[in-house]
Amino acid sequence: MTETTNFRTMDESTNADWQRVAASVGGDSGGLADLVLGMLTRLKGSSLCMPVDPYEHCLQTATRAFKDGAEEEMVVCALLHDIGDLPAPQNHAEFAAAILRPYVSDEAHGVVLLHEIFQGYHYFAKVGLDRNLRDRFRGHPSFARAAEFCANWDQNSFDKNYESMPLAAFEPMLRRVFARPPYETNTTPRVDFMGFRINMAPGNLAPGGTA
Ligand SMILES: [Fe+2]
Question: In this structure, what CATH number is given to the domain that contains residue 168?
Fold first, then answer.
């Protein structure tokens, strides 16, 4: 194992320290895929009182996307769109979108980010909300795909009798997506140094204020 650096504060760290840290981060390219697969598997058996558990729901959603010929990154987004159901129930879409953002297109990231509101088109009216709340995002580049995602793959994936593809069928796709060089497939503003990439537009923050 590489010797650790010895700074007590970032203020006293050196360029050589960061070169070593950067090199060690670059050597863990497979770790994220393993972590995400573990998070997905953790959803098994947690029913949330839904007809199928979130694990099966994710497999169903991804299977429908795959069978409809969706791009590989979109299939992976379908597989992971609800991995935040347990750890981030109040902002599960943001949670999944944040993990996927460096590795997918702007459009796919937008679909995952918006799906929490867009799926409401299919049930908000039943709980006294306006099903068209998604309309405040008219003009967003992912609007049409997010609407399709929810209509064709997400809202209809609670079927106990549907035969989903197994996780093993999706694992190579997931590993290929997370092996992409970060931020090469989208326009996220970033600063590069020593192989690190820092996202300069985290969340909905834009330089100088909120977007
Ligand atoms: Fe879902």
Answer: 1.10.3210.10
